[in-house]
Amino acid sequence: MERRVVVLIVCAVGVSSLHALDHTLDSVWKDWKSLHGKEYTQGSEGQRRMIWEENHRFIQRHNMEEAQGKHSYRLGMNQFGDLMDAEYQEMMLCSEDTSQEEFSSLPVWNCSVPKAPARWDWRQKGYVTPVKNQGKCGSCWAFSATGALEGQMFKKTRQLVPLSEQNLMDCSRDYGNNGCHGGFPTRAFDYIAVNGGIESEKTYPYTAKDSSRCKYSKRRSVASCKGYQELPRGNERCLKNALIAVGPIAVSVNASLTTFKFYKSANHAMLAVGYGTNCGAKFWIVKNSWGTCWGDEGLYPGGQRQRQSMWNWYSLYLSSGVRFLRTSKKLLQYQNP
């Protein structure tokens, strides 16, 4: 009898769930699945559809409030629409913030640099590779690290060479990184410095999967680094000055909130590439690694003013600080693979 009751309850829940679907969204759901290549088993589609509908309602409510002046940014449905927050966090985000002690021994950059100009964008100067996609893998830390080094490589050689995130994922575990399950740009930099180099994306392509074997070859190495420094936490003026003086900077954010997941116009690492002002509102330009369907073609113009933006909301450097890469002129050499 108990077994029969359980079965009836489960079936009732399943039927109730299906009846709860909003069939006015059928065509929208179909188009979204086609756009993002989503396929489900017959038993799982109903559950994924319900999660998607709940996220759809959340986005609609937020955008209505944005039209009323309650927010300064809009949200939009993207590839994460069928994921619960916990699934999204486990699949896409990196490790939790490192402790303050880990950075206590790092040299802190001197912020005494001339006043920064009103706008800056390293993309326009050729320092930034196209937006990449980490896939269903928590490897954001590797993309943040390669982005910083790619900028420094261009600064020294005028060659913009996409570097290998998979190289870092496969080979920096001894430094505390954990592949698709999280890591830190600082530890990636440590690996590159001690290892003496990193391969290009062309010779060591990205697979979005963990591997137990490091396939790095020094013969194919195209860049290396000497070290890195930390910027004073919470100091936007210093971040601006460092961005101009150094190049694109590895940053960390708290990307756990649903509003970040569906952002349209420090457990996640990205790359700060510039800043500016729009209608009096200041913003940062940050390159993400979730493909071009997220944000503004894969970039996040996060604001600088609290209550007007997502930048302070996500505490980009209050949570885990900002580090920049200092390359070695001697070691940084571009070689044709």
From TrEMBL:
One of its GO terms (biological process) is proteolysis. GO terms for molecular function: cysteine-type peptidase activity. Keywords: Disulfide bond, Hydrolase, Protease, Signal, Thiol protease, Zymogen. Gene3D superfamilies: Cysteine proteinases (3.90.70.10). PROSITE patterns: THIOL_PROTEASE_CYS, THIOL_PROTEASE_HIS. Residues 29-88 form the Cathepsin propeptide inhibitor domain. This is Cathepsin L1-like. It comes from Albula goreensis.
